[in-house]
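Supplementary Text 2. Reproducibility record for the structural model of the 580-residue chain.

All settings were left at their defaults, and a single model was retained for analysis rather than an ensemble. We include the record here because the model underlies the residue-level annotations in Supplementary Table 4.
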Amino acid sequence: MDNSLDIKKESIITNLAKDKLNLFFIILILTLGIFLRFNDYNGVSYGSDDESTIPTGLLWFYPHTSYPGLSGVGEPALGNFFVGLGCMISGEDFSGVSQIRPMFYPGRSSLIGEALAKAEPYCFFPIYFFGILFLIAISLFALLTLPKYSATFIISFIAFSPFILSHSRWMHVDIILFFFVVSALLFLWLAYKSDKGGKKEILFFIISFVLFALAFSTKLPAAAHLLFAIFLILEKYKSEFLSTLKKSFEKLGLNSLIKPSEGDKLNTKTLIKILAYSLLSYLLVLLVTFEFNLKNIFATIQTYNSHGYNINAFGLTSKFYLGFIELLQKINIFDTIVFSFAFYIMIRILFKKNKTKFEKFALYSALYLILLCLLFQIVMMLRVFFIFAIGFFFLASLIFSNEEYSIFAVLRIKKVSLVFYALIIVYITFSFTSALNDSPYFSIKNPIFCYFKSEECLSAYSNSREVANLVKSDLNDNETFIGGGLMIYYYTRQDESLPLYIFNSNFNKQIGREPKIADYLQYYHPSNRTVRYVIIEPHEQESYGGEGGVLLKGYIPLKTLKIKDKDSAYLYDLFNLKKR
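Retained model, structure tokens:
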């Protein structure tokens, strides 16, 4: 077996053809992974974040007075553009989006809610599409860089990971971000391993920086990848960089601060050209995606920070491990064992004398992840943690390589193929069936984590469309309801979102507390309607000043919404309450 981890000259197809059994498993994994991503296509509905995500995307296609990203939580709006494009394909009229007030969500349902309810499948399609693209991109990345068994594991992990599956179904732009980041890392690797000064090298670096810029234009934290990409360029051209640095120091009379290097005689023009072209490409993409106005970038960062995310704040923190803990919560037992070996492999490679290029690439990426966790609290959020953890995952997968640090070498396993394929069959069977049983919500938690944090592992499913359907058929024109969340107003009674907000806000200011059910019955009459129904979810024991718990414990609901055989919401008829 080839001991090198670097890319081979043969094509991917040629390499896979040499091991037809491995090719079979990769095809099977990809087929099952794609099936999970489309299974029960209409099983998810709009969620609370969509009040920001979708209008931001639609604004690209209608008149707007400011950068679309400033209309929501203050994020770059490229990912939202693709969501908006999906909605627009439906042919519905979303022109009311031009009337929305930046960062003010009540009332948006009356402007675009009815159209969004009709266009729901179209709006979700870009998320499904990028979910497939991400699976393909990371599979290609794995096949180009990793030994065959390591690549098979990574592909299966991404195909069946509940975290990835959930983001391939729900209305979040994170899956679009994941695609851009992995694609950028793939081209960064291709550039890093290319011969110095070749045409392919500079092309790959430019493509990588373009993709990193697209990632930044989707989510702000992705900007940190720019430093990693620059570091790899300088690491590859270390001699040239040190030579240039030495000459600069000599001109300043500080030549004693740096030792002479073998790069003194090397041409640094290639290094300068790569940095210049790559950075210019990065800046050009930002200009395009931020509507040719750099002020939009700073305004977006300022708005984002106003929500408390504080992406610019940094400083050493002793809780750098929280990102890894959150990862532990979202993976299965098998993954937990594999990823635990990443630190062992990292140490082994760190002290290895003759590192391959890919070992360096993965090691630098993993170390950069740890550095970011030490300096930036936002990286502890799994959605942010993940975009910097690709190298860490690839490093962990080397447990299945044929290197001296692999589990096969450590345990002195001779029948490597037999053991690996037995493991992967168990892994596929367990991961696929677990995901399928939880489809399309994918809220599975790691049982090891749940043993210590059982209160955080209670499965809870919600579907705004189904909650709306729970009450729709019972409503008369002169009646209304309370509860169920704000997104329910995108499916029914679109005109009541703003009146509800005004009532709750004024009541709180004047009385000094949240309104109870009796207060809604007496004072809340939107469009001269009377509150008759209340929707309460099982966890809302303390809602309405504790009256939610009274209803849940003491009265029989008119209707119960069950999702995956679990109670998701209850509908109570306040005019006909029946005690238990």
